[in-house]
Write a structure and sequence with these properties.
mainly alpha, 2 domains, about 55% helix, globular
C-alpha cells in the first residue's frame, strides 16, 4: 500500500468511526449532525474577526476552562472590550494590559483563582496585542485581502501562522492555524494534541514532528483523501476530544479506541 492509499484509508476509517459513536446521553452521531461541523463562514466585520481571535487564543491546554469557562463565555468581555472593536480597545487601554486585567477582575469577576502571573494575566496580553494587530485593518475586507496575499500561494501559506505567532502574544503556531481555519481559510488545520497523538500512533508523521510539519501532514492527508485540511482537522479532533460543541453533547475521548480500531483493520 502506498502512503497516499494509507492516508485515504485512515481518513475513511475515521469518518466511519465517527459515524458509529454515541454520546453520553445516548444520542447517536449521524451524518446530518456532523455536516455542520465541516462548514465555516467568513467573518463579516473586524469585530467578528477580533472575537474569533480571542476564542482561538483560549483553545490551548486548560485555557478554555480557566478563561471562557470562568465567565460563562468570552462574549461576557464585551463591555470591558468596547464591544470587541480593536481600535476602541487600543484607545481605551493603550499599552496597559494590566488595566485590562484589573477591569476584568472588577467588572466581569471570573470564578476561581485569578493571579497576576496566571493565565488570565497572559490572556490580557493577548487581548491587547490582538487588538493592536487587527487595529491595522479598516474592515474585514481589508483583513481578508491581506491574508489572501499569503493564502493564495501554497509556498507562502505556512508563513502566515508564523507571522501571527510573532505579532500576537500567547498565540503559538497551532492557535494561529485554529484562528485562520475558523474564519474561513479551509486549507489550514490545527496541529493540536489530538491530531498529534493519532497521526504519530498511526505513523502518518514522525514521532518528533513539529507543529509546522504536522500541518503539512494534515494537508497531505487531506489531498490524498479528497477533503479539505479543515475537514480532516475536525474529523480527528471530534474523535479525540469527544466534544460535539455545536450540539451541547459529548462522547468519551476516543483517540485510543480509534487507534486500536485502525490497527485492527
Amino acid at each position: 500500500m502506498s502512503s497516499a492509499e494509507r492516508d485515504k484509508q485512515v481518513f475513511d476509517l475515521a469518518e466511519s468511526f465517527l459515524n458509529s459513536l454515541t454520546t453520553k446521553d445516548g444520542f447517536r452521531v449521524t451524518q446530518e449532525m456532523l455536516s455542520k461541523y465541516f462548514q465555516v463562514e467568513k467573518q463579516k466585520t473586524i469585530v467578528d474577526i477580533y472575537f474569533r481571535l480571542l476564542l482561538s487564543a483560549q483553545n490551548a491546554n486548560m485555557k478554555a476552562g480557566v478563561i471562557g469557562g470562568s465567565i460563562d463565555g468570552i462574549e461576557n468581555l464585551q463591555n470591558v472590550l468596547c464591544d470587541f472593536e480593536p481600535k476602541a480597545v487600543i484607545k481605551k487601554y493603550g499599552d496597559n494590559s494590566q488595566q485590562i486585567f484589573t477591569d476584568i477582575k472588577k467588572q466581569v469577576k471570573p470564578r476561581g483563582k485569578v493571579n497576576a502571573n496566571g493565565l488570565w494575566s497572559r490572556y490580557c496580553d493577548t487581548i491587547l496585542s490582538g487588538a493592536k494587530f487587527l487595529g491595522q485593518f479598516n474592515s474585514a475586507e481589508d483583513f481578508y485581502q491581506w491574508v489572501n496575499w499569503f493564502y493564495k500561494d501554497e509556498r507562502a501559506r505556512p508563513a502566515l501562522p508564523l507571522l501571527l505567532k510573532e505579532e500576537i502574544s500567547g498565540f503559538g503556531f497551532a492557535l494561529a492555524c485554529d484562528f485562520l481555519k475558523e474564519i474561513g481559510f479551509l486549507e489550514y488545520g490545527k496541529p493540536d494534541v489530538w491530531l498529534r497523538k493519532i497521526f504519530i500512533s498511526l505513523e502518518l508523521c514522525s514521532p518528533e514532528v513539529t507543529d509546522s510539519e504536522l500541518l503539512k501532514a494534515i494537508i497531505r492527508v487531506a489531498q490524498n483523501a479528497g477533503a479539505t485540511p479543515y475537514k480532516v482537522d475536525k474529523v480527528f479532533w471530534l474523535i479525540g476530544s469527544g466534544n460535539f460543541y455545536l450540539d451541547g453533547r459529548k462522547t468519551r475521548r476516543n483517540a485510543e479506541n480509534f487507534i486500536e480500531f485502525v490497527k485492527s483493520q
